[in-house]
Structure of Aldo/keto reductase:
Amino acid sequence: MQYRRLGQTSLKVSALSLGTWLNLSTKISGNDAHDYINHALEAGVNLIDTAESYEGGDVERLIGDVLSTGPFPRDAYCICTKIYFGATTRENRAMLRPTQKGLSRKHILEGCDASLHRLQTDYIDILLCHRYDPDTSLEELAWTMHSLVFQGKILYWGTSEWPPEEIERLIEIAGKNHLIGPSIEQPQLNVVHRDTYKRLVGWGGAVSALGLMTWSPLASGILSGRYGERPDAEGRLNDRSTSWVQALAFGKNRSRILALSKVLTRIAGELQISPAQLAVAWCLKQPMVSTVIIGGSTREQLVENLGATEKVDLLTTDIMQAVESAVSSRIVENAVGGC
């Protein structure tokens, strides 16, 4: 496993981190979850990503159960969780009261304590604000996160899927008030969806110093090559409980994205690697990326994705240009992403 500094922090994280969205608790649970998480840690992964909203908090509970009974000491790994949507399932978000979601001081403080309880830990290594909240004062947010650092409840903090202009404002407020500011952003990044990432990289200033934890390198599995001509044949895009992911993954570009996936599968075949490894390795080569969040619905998929770190050198300038040519020739529009 390779390790990289997380932006300008002193924290070194594995180039690949373990994602838990749409797999833990739903597809992987019990002893399988223990095997899944511990295998990632044994492979050198030292960062696990989750959120208060994943399965209404059940994913945090599962992670807490696994890590508290596992062989790895607390100082051997990092936990990143996110706050904003509330500790409920996507289907029940509309039932939450205003104080049970968002980025008010009340929800952040209470939500952080609830996550600590579910994760069975004394501190959270990285706490991210899961979305920009137009109803929250950035001054209030900066002071609240600063106070959590000084209480020892979190070590680092940042944002997820925020517009760069709002991140810049947040950094300026923290600097003006001598506060510990945000140092991490978590945008979606894959060959298909990269508009947010491109805006961050091109923004400059303090925003360019952020450490990026990128998610969905396989575009919800599309770039794994498993769907082919029938995207509904298997995987999460065929799962009724997550059928809404299709809209996020494809947007209005289903045929073009499938055509692109077919070309990428051919390129991967020429390199004698899997399409998934090509997709992950492509993300690892992008500027500002500190870690790429991977996962899988099975241990076998996880093992395959972990192997991407050994394939990065195969992506020569010519290969990267071939990928770009495949994307530009299909004029894929950015689809709406979210977790």
